[in-house]
Structures are given as C-alpha cells and as structure tokens.
Amino acid sequence: MQLRDLKRQYEALKPEMDVALLSAVASGNYILGTVVEELEQRLAGYVGVQHCISCASGTDALALALMVWDVGEGDAVFVPDFTFFATVEVVLQRGAMPVLVDVNPATYNMDVQHLKQQIERVQEEGCLRPRAIIAVDLFGLPADMVAIRQQARQHGMYLLEDAAQGFGGSLQGQRAGALGDISTTSFFPAKPLGCYGDGGALFTDNKEWADALRSLRLHGKGSDKYHNVRVGTNSRLDALQAAVLQVKMDAFENGELRHVNEIAQQYTDALQGLVQCPQVPTGYSSSWAQYTIRLRNKEQRDTLQQYLQQCGVPSVVYYPVPMHEQPAVQAALSEISSCQSKSLCPVSAELCGTVLSLPMHPYLTDEEVRQVIQAVLAGLSASNK
Ligand SMILES: *Cc1c(COP(=O)(O)O)cnc(C)c1O
Question: Which atom of ligand 1 is nearest to the CA of 86?
C-alpha cells in the first residue's frame, strides 16, 4: 500500500495518457503553446476566475505573485506557522518579513484571532508595513477566507491563497483558487491535481496582474521574448505536463474527487471519537490532499505510526517542524529582530507532535481502506493497554 499511489493512477489512465503523451511529443512544441493555453482556459473555467497563468511549480507561483505585487524589504507578510516551507520561503526570498500566525486547532488553517493580534502588533511596532496575507488551504481544506479577506481589506493588504493542496475544494460554492486576490496551486505529482514532474499555476480576476505574470514567467518579456520590459524569471509549464494534466483533469472531474471524499467519510465514520478526525465545517468541501488524524500526545502518535508500519500501512507526519522552529526562518527573523518580537504559535507546535497522515488517494480499494481502519483501531487499543 502507498500513501498516494501514482503508479496505480497511471495504470487506470494508461490508454488516454499514452496517446496524450505521444501526441505532445510528436507536436514538436514543448514549452507553453496551444496545449498549455487550452489547459489554462480549462482550469480558469473550473476554478471560476478570468485568468489562469501556468508556471514551473507551486513555489514559483507564490514567488511570482509576490513579484507582481512588488513585495520586498520592509514589508510584513502574514503566513501560517503550520504549512510546507515554500509558503514562508518565498517571503524570505523577497527580503520581506514573514509574520507567523498560529493555526486553528480544529481546522489546522490560519487562526483569524491570532492573525488580528499579529497585524495589531506589527502596526504598534511600526517598523514593518503590513503588505500581504498568504492563507494556505492545508490538507485540501480551504482556509477561513471570508474572515481573512475582511482583515486584508480592512488593512489594505493583498490576499494570496496558497491552494497547492486545496485545488478541488470549495468554500460557500466558490472553488479554491478563486478565494484570493491571486491564488496559486501546484501540480507536484502527489498534489490533488498532479502532473509527471513539477508544475504550477496562478489564478486571478485582475487582467493587469495576469498580463504582468505572463511577462514575468518569461524573462519579463514585452511584445516578444527578446524585448524585455521587467526583470522576471524562467518559469513555464511544459506542453507534456499540460497534456498529462488534461487527462488527469478528466479523471479528477469524473470521479477522483468524489472518491477521495467517500474514503474520507469512511475513515471518519470508523475513527471519530477515538482520535481527532479532520473537520470540514459547514459550507466547506475538501480535496483531501491529506487525511490527517491527531493523537493524544507524541508518544501515542509515534507508537501508532510504528504499529502501522508493522502492519504494512504507510503513514507520514505532515509536518514535523513548525515554521518558527525552522533554522532558515530563525536565522532570518533574528537578523531583523528589532522589528520582530517573538511570535508564539503553541497550536502549531503541538500539532507537529501529534498529527499523522493516513493513505489517501482515489485508487485505494475498499479492502485497503478497511485494512487501514483495522490497523489504526488495533494500534490504538494496543497503546491504551
Ligand atoms: C507543495 C506545496 C507548495 C509548493 O509547491 P511545489 O510545486 O512543490 O513548488 C507550496 N505550498 C504548499 C502548502 C504546498 O503543499
């Protein structure tokens, strides 16, 4: 069994996939081009925004958004403490200050109360300019974007939605990818919509930004590639990956997303009350990038993980280290320490010691789902003795 079985997905999609791959190779056009444009239009339509701009990775997508907003030195960017490092890394790359915000103990997403406190603190300290909020749709569940957007508006900040894990989820009928001023996603193979390598995309309704992003991803091109009007980068999607994503999107829309939701429900029905299961509040839907349970303490978590391993059930700790404890973040924060009193994120620290992600993908069989549940139940009762 695998946490996310990409080989099994390929086997299921093989006939369509092989045709798509070969025709992309035969086309003789390998970077951007019509296949990529068609994919961008399809994804914009699916998400429900005017513009989709593909690029080379989810990390680049975040970096490009901060570039187009000219976020840099002296700017405060509010980011969750419990996330994948890329969310914070892009802020540091720009020379801006990531202000870490604790997460909600029920949803694991950015805690709006703590966000308000952190914004106030930055304003009182007065040496950084609140510029942007990056909200992450962690494990597939959209962040509390309605309340977070209100904070962004109130303080004149940009709102960036990191939907690397959220693609396919929704909030009050709006899809993830449409919830920020700019939203980004990743096509890393293990994400809800993954390709066969690195890839990413940005979504926005703002035409000016969309045009600037298309320029930035291609060396700041003006009217053509050899007319450069801004300093950009090389971050484009391959035609091959776009061809892969067309086939994967068909599968995603025709059952994969529904199926991961059914599996999540089976897990929750069986485990609710014994461990903290993922919560999907009313009005939200998740794309289940991960199904992550929370144990009583670190000892119970580590014991269960070992037990699962003995049963042949893989599990992973997402994430073992909170952002405020990452050496790269600590080094950066101490350099600008005069502007940054220590931010405490106790919930995030606690989650790193107690969470565990179980196998989750649309090609798990009923038998495998039962096996995971049985192993977790047996592991828990062993640890309760
Ligand atoms: C995976 C991920 C990214 C980065 O995406 P890549 O395509 O791997 O660069 C950014 N943010 C979050 C929350 C992610 O999970």
Answer: 10
